[in-house]
Design a protein that fits this description.
With about 190 residues, the chain is an alpha/beta fold. The protein has one domain: 3-Layer(aba) Sandwich (Rossmann fold). Helix content is about 45%, strand content about 20%. It has eight helices and eight strands. Strands 3-2-1-4-5-6-7-8 form an eight-stranded mixed beta sheet, with helices on both faces. Helix 4 links the parallel strand 4 and strand 5. The chain is globular.
């Protein structure tokens, strides 16, 4: 058993999700995966992950579930849809929202769940695969402390920022700053030409 205190589900296997799941497998973590398009699970299943047909099946017996879906609608479906993580009642593990959605959306979708973290990830799929992400986390201190060993498998820098929604707020602010920097660079190149 690794320092994750149990299997981990990864829900949503886009570029980041598949890299996070691969990283966890490389670190000896038991991984259960789900994706709306089932064939995205095949490489991970060949590497040792359990591929589930439904989100609620993916989280069975897990200590944590990491959601890396495309948007708020997808996150709502994965958590609260007919086959969603919460369709059978409260989830006993930690729900980790790593999808880039609004802070308010994270809080609304979390509802009364007792163990939810929102994690703004800074980095790309290569950083995710190598455990070199920067992770900005919102949620209760006790939940963060309990899941810190898992987060440290995924990120070289893990920072708890405070209440639920804080991780997404930081992610969106950093995205804004990077956009401004890119715009400034484009303006400078144009002026120099």
């Amino acid at each position: 058993m690794t320092c994750t205190s149990g299997p981990v589900a990864v829900l949503g296997l886009g570029m980041m999700g598949i890299s996070l799941a691969g990283r966890l497998l490389d670190q000896g973590v038991q991984v259960r995966v789900w994706n709306r398009t089932a064939e995205r699970t095949e490489p991970l299943a060949k590497a040792g992950a359990f591929a589930a047909a439904r989100p609620i099946e993916a989280v069975e017996g897990t200590a944590a579930a990491i959601c890396t879906v495309a948007d708020g609608d997808a996150l709502s479906a994965v958590l609260r849809g007919p086959d969603g993580v919460l369709s059978g009642g409260s989830y006993p593990g930690a729900l980790i929202c790593a999808s880039t959605v609004s802070p308010d959306e994270v809080v609304r979708l979390a509802g009364n769940e007792p163990s939810v973290l929102d994690v703004g990830m800074l980095g790309n799929r290569d950083h995710a695969r190598s455990g070199d992400l920067r992770l900005y986390v919102g949620g209760e201190e006790r939940v963060f402390t309990a899941r810190r060993p898992l987060l440290e498998l995924l990120g070289k820098e893990v920072v708890h920022l405070g209440e639920l929604g804080s991780g997404m707020r930081m992610k969106l602010l950093l995205n804004l700053l990077m956009g401004i920097e890119l715009q400034a660079l484009a303006e400078a190149v144009e002026l120099a030409a």
